[in-house]
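Issue: copy button drops trailing tokens. Both records pasted manually instead:
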Amino acid sequence: MSWSGWGDPARARELPEQVRTLLHDLLGVRAPAVPAVALEAVRVPPVALPGPLVEALAGVAGAEHVLTTHEARVRHTRGKSTPDLLRMRAGDGSDAPDAVVLPGSHEEVAGLLRLCSAERIAVVPFGGGTSVVGGLAAARAGFAGVVALDLARLDRLRAVDTESMVAEFEPGVRAAEAERLLAARGLTLGHFPQSFEYATLGGFAAARSSGQASAGYGRFDDMVMGLTVATPAGTLDLGRAPKSAAGPDLRQLVLGSEGAFGVITSLRLRVRRAPAERRYEGWRFASFAAGSAAVRTLAQEGPVPAVLRLSDETETMIGLAEPDAIGSGGSGCLLIAGHEGASETGRRAAVSALLARLGGEPLGAGPGEAWERGRFSAPYLRDSLLAAGAAVETLETAGFWANLPRLYDAVRLALLGALGSPLVMCHVSHAYETGASLYFTVVTPQDADPVAQWERAKAEVNAAIVEAGGTITHHHGVGRDHRDAYAAELGPVGVSVLDAVKTRLDPAGILNPGVLVPPATPA
């Protein structure tokens, strides 16, 4: 994983000259005045942890699994949001952990949490490092130091129950490796978010991830049948049946908790038979309103394809799926419908008939195949745009169908008001019977301080989402970036409940401090 960008550095590439010209002519984008620094030039603070505490960590995990090198600390600094990457490209490693610790078992995780709680060492659980909401930058004030708890050694498929269709994984298994292991048994999770190639299963659970095929397979939290969690207060072992009436489901307390309540050390996940074939097709609608109505009809009346996503007019025109052909996507709004499995023939025919009846124009397999080729490549395009001098970032929300047009307009207006004349694109990324998510991409020229530029825009968008009645996040998570807006969404009683849980499970407050849990309002 690139330390200052996304994914495999070998897959990074410069934008074609015609795209650079388009960015300059359309938005006024100019190349940055200062190039990105090299890894060894990143400025990190001195290790704050005293030697005896580093030795104590080594006593639990083994000396070879406690790293304090410059490179290890840089590679575990922050996540992959645009502000994260801009800071790293500028050489700002001020949020670097003091040490990176790689435990090899639940018992070692539990022992490390007991030690860190007793010694007031902040702990940031680290999976694939793909957070885009500031979820990996712990607050340092009041702590002896900060440790990144890298779960890469917890990377096993422990068991597969093909009668119950449940597989048990350790949290550090990357999604692509999980699919490879399951495919050998003819199975799949069916969870393919944009971070698929690098994110981990534990990270999916901790952030309530949604995949691109969630219309067919469900969100990741739908797949979690059980989990084991190490906390400073002890171990939680949750989920002994698919559903239960035995009080509130505490699995839901852990899902989406972003490492603030505990560290997931095992997951029992629902699996499905792997489809023999996958087919993705394109449809064109005259407007975003017409396409949204078609998506809503599919979600409410069925049948629902495994993949269902709709781009607005601007995103369709730009055509981000093919970087070499940016700006040639055509008119109207592009809908992608994906069908998985040989048994989908009848469903596909029914979906096609309904889309045609609702005004859709069939475009065949070409647009779907282009989307499939580029489904995991957008973060690489973002890196190329950043290098060219554009500030580019994504954000998402969700709301009920009746409120979706208002939410769409509110976000667009907030971005336009904050950034002047940015390029704002949107698509419906996940659809439900009662509503849908909206996923926005914004591109604008970098100003003299692009981090502050985006932070101002993000604050205005967060406020607009709350005022318009949407949720502050559908699948990116809360982290630091959404924490204050999350407090407004929860209300004071909800915030006090989160604070009470945090206090009970993590009395010293060492787990990911500053992330997720808003400061409690004084009584």
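Record 2 (pasted manually too):
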Amino acid sequence: MTVVDGPACPNCGLLTGSRSPGAARERFEGLLETAPDAMVIVDDTGTIRLVNAQTEALFGYDREELLGRPVEVLVPGRYHADHARHRSDYTANRQVRPMGAGLDLHGLRKDGTEFPVEISLSPLETADGLLISAAVRDVTERKAAEAELTALYEQQRHAALTLQRSLMGTPPDVPGLTTASRYLPATQGLGVGGDWFDLIPLGAGRVGVLMGDVMGRGLEAAAIMGQIRSAAHALAKTGMEPNELVRALDAVVADLAGPDQLVTCCYLVIAPDAGEVTVCSAGHLPALIAGPDGGVRVLPAPVSVPLGVGDVLHQQQTTAVEPGALLLLYTDGLIETPGSDIEDRLDHLVAALDRAYAGADYAARTSTPASAPDLEAIADDLLASLLPDSDGHDDVTLLLTRLPAAPLATTTADFPATAASVAEGRSFLAKTLLSWGFLNLVDDARLLVSEVMTNAVRHGQGRVRIQARYTARELTVEVADDSPRLPRPRLASDDEESGRGLALVESLADTWGVRPSGTGKATWFSFDLTHDHRPADALG
């Protein structure tokens, strides 16, 4: 090995430039050669003074080609400036530590190829000044394994999120209902969780809104969520009251998840014709309402426990809500953060919604949907305000809904549950439709209301109520009675006089249905006004 002349190193016996190695130098060089890593020793100017055989093998140089040259010969050219700065910083604060911790470091072989490395630095104090020992390790295989693993993980995460989105489903577009939604996966693990929401058209202008959260993370929570969401959707389609749906879901959760699994859930029914929202919450965070005239408030709901706790009587509450109001539902990931008080975070959310909604003036908030506040922009504002840092949050679901406008016209009449009332009901509806200009619907509507009222007075008692209303999209007629018995379509034989009424309703109406209503029920049918069933003055 060739070195230049110089004084000895009193601490380690290294002769930094002597042709007489001596016993101490031989021992040091022997240790250097047995090191598992490439060892490069440089002085405080960055000049290479010693290397071992591993350095020759790793970088492809003979050691005589390296001694006396700047250490940057082993560093890709694009890193030279940064490398010199790292050396200078180390010289000023010398200690055993990695070089460029947290950075991707690369070495340069003689043949010009690059490879990833890790470098550990140690100071050597000598009589001639500071020397720096650099242990260089090739981490090509480890980096390749890691890349195969920050790729396998992404594939698993993508598959898990795809599964969750499939289980969540895609809520339908509900005519007359403007919505904006966001789902953010959790930042930890695979990102999947138990959040879900759903929109269910209930007919006659009513809409069901579901929001829920299965406690926990991972595929198990997502699988339970998918089953509960499917059950909730099917139950909601029956038209049952919110408290009855939540009570039924309690049993579903007990069967699916066991006694240790908790699920929060909130179910609302929006009734634009009545200007009401009915809500039942099973331990879910409160929904918020932003009124068209400004101001944000919590939507009142009886306090209850999550699903899965046990035999608890969940209650519902109906609240008058102005047409055009904004409804916000969300899961706990939006406001629950480590080290924060949930009441403070809820206040923060209320203030953020108030600021975002107040960005539109009163005229825009109360006018047509086309000029209403941009719900997509409001959703983005809320996320930016509540979750400014994208790291460290649970999965988040957010749903904004602008309540539909009130009917353009509505009228109601009550009749005794007697056979004579059927003719009176037909006459009332015919006069109403003529006054509204629906000349082409009078005959069909009169026939259908006759069939529905006949069922009501035959099986009901007390009084029968007819309500007719229309929006820009549909004309709806409802017949409500006090009987809880729900009518069912059936195929009548040739010699039967009954059994054809609902088949006739199904044939002539564009949509129809039955929903429970307190102690009774309401049977309704609708005509689509977006095509040929517009009022006469509009047909002109």
